[in-house]
Design goal:
With 412 residues, the chain is mainly alpha-helical. The protein has 13 helices and 6 strands.
Amino acid sequence: MELTPSWTSSYVLGNDTSGDGGDEGWGQRYFYTYFTERGNRPITARVECGILLIIFMLSVVANLSIAGAVLRYKEMRTVTNCFLLNLAVADLLFAAGTPLVALARLTPVWQFGSVTCRLLPYSQFVCGFVLLWTLTLISMDRHRCLAIPPYRSELTPRRALLLTAATWLIAAILFLPVAAWFRYYPDTRVCTLVFPPNDHVNLSLFFVVPVTCLSCLLPMSLLAFHYQRIFHKLVKTRSRWMVGGQCAEPREQRKISIQQIVNGGAGVRAGSLTHHEESRLNKHIRVARIILLNVLVVLIMWLPITVVMFLIYVDGSRPTADTNFFLRSHHFLWALLIALLNTVVNPLLYGFLSENFRAYLARMWLGAKHGPRDDCASRAASIGNKTQLSMGDLLSTRQSMHSLDLVCGRVA
């Protein structure tokens, strides 16, 4: 008995034409199934569906909480929180298609028609673009606040809203071809992306390479660069703990090491720091740890879908006679699932880790009468009154105050 090749679960032979009833096109070719997968796979499909629905519910609850806190309380409408509101909206819209993807995994063929076939991938591409660029704008604003004198943002909430509106407009225009090129083929009942043939220009290459660079590689590179600069600033900071006009520690012991940051500042005090100084130093270390986490999360969750989409393009460039396909539909599904998981992680990382956000969320959920405690302000103000400089080599007093605000939740 001849075994059916595994690639037939994700590639379907069909006939491509330029339009309804048209004669031009690629003719006979294999279509990648993207959201659906052929074959008998009831258990796997249910597992995929369950995971997708769990991610969807968590994303909706978390992002609605972030958006609700920013919209409900006027004092929460800061520059960074405007970015976070836009991030929550992008997360919600990106996750909105998850139930449809889950249903598609339960059926071997596409059952949702032509319009949905075009709108679902288009909306996901647009939201993914906005999501990544919003994270990048946050990193750029943080970089200016923490690493570039005079250590303050040049943005206002109005400018932040204009920037976020620009990202939506650019994304909506940039991915219009996706809505045109994703098509539903009734004869094979598959929703797939087919680039139109052109005798003069390789449209697929002309579209895939610059769009991948602009929507994925460039924002991820900028985000990593800005957070690396902030991290570098914090790591190379030297502490001057003055005791009677003399340094309490030898010069070679004053530098904050990467190992101390990863370990949460263990071993920093060495018996010479006051409780107040140790607390401030640990807050700087916590900022650096969060920065590391920011970069790792973006790279881990967005590189897979970037790589898979490029490999789909490579796999689809084969001649019809070549059936040595190495990708399967579940590769796309799991890469998409990891990117969708980012819609749950974002509100946790940028919102719930903030003391200020947690206080306002508790006020919104539990009806607490009091807002967040203002002890962060008193601790930050006390820096200016101290004669001992905690981070004098590289961080000014103003930067230290801003870092405390960052950790305490005033800046997400």
